[in-house]
Design a protein that fits this description.
Layout (H helix, E strand, L loop, with lengths): L15 H9 L11 H14 L3 H11 L11 H8 L15 E10 L6 H7 L6 E8 L4 E9 L4 H13 L4 E7 L5 H9 L6 E3 L4 H7 L5
Parallel strand pairs: 1-4, 4-5
Antiparallel strand pairs: 1-2, 2-3
Helix pairs in contact: 3-4, 6-7
Length: about 210
Amino acid sequence: MKRGEILLDLRILDRWDSELERMNAGKEGGRYVYPEIFIRLLGYMRMLFHLPYRQTEGFLRALRRFDSRIHVPDYSTIDRRVNRLDIKLDEKDYGDDIVLAVDASGIKVSNRGDWMRRKWKVRRGYLKIHIAVDVKRKKILALKVTDEKVGDGRMLQPLVEETSTRAKIAKALVTAHTTRKATSAILTQKGLSQPSRCTRTHPAELEDAYPGNS
């Protein structure tokens, strides 16, 4: 199963020396060791993946095994240099035609002890991921993590509220067991009438309903 991938444009390494030469021209005192374009990349990585500074340093050390040209700054240097830059993610305009699909799935925390649990019939809890997805653009607009005791209907309002701060929802698709009176009231407050219920939708059916989304 392909769970995801990260694409990094490391062509900035080709400009490493020339960028440092430009930054250090006429500079008094200690000279820069890491170019700004590299530090800016680290800043965006931290923001996108919510990495603390120590984990950012660890990520770079792992990445260096694939490209030895990468020089790894310590976490305190990353902290100091990143905070000098104004790094912001551009807010995308999602428009006012969002078709929102809301669902949840459970994941195990670890596989350790599965044999013992099956043998002695010991139940172990799991995490539950609640997501709200823009069906047309195939983008996750809101995500919440709970334990297995939290029902889908309980997390619908937080997901809709978070999505509403970023885009205008035109229609909502929810699982059949989520559509209740309380759920209908939540969506009605957002200008949506009775939500559409889904039991099991094949990807081809969504593509037929919303063509041109490849």
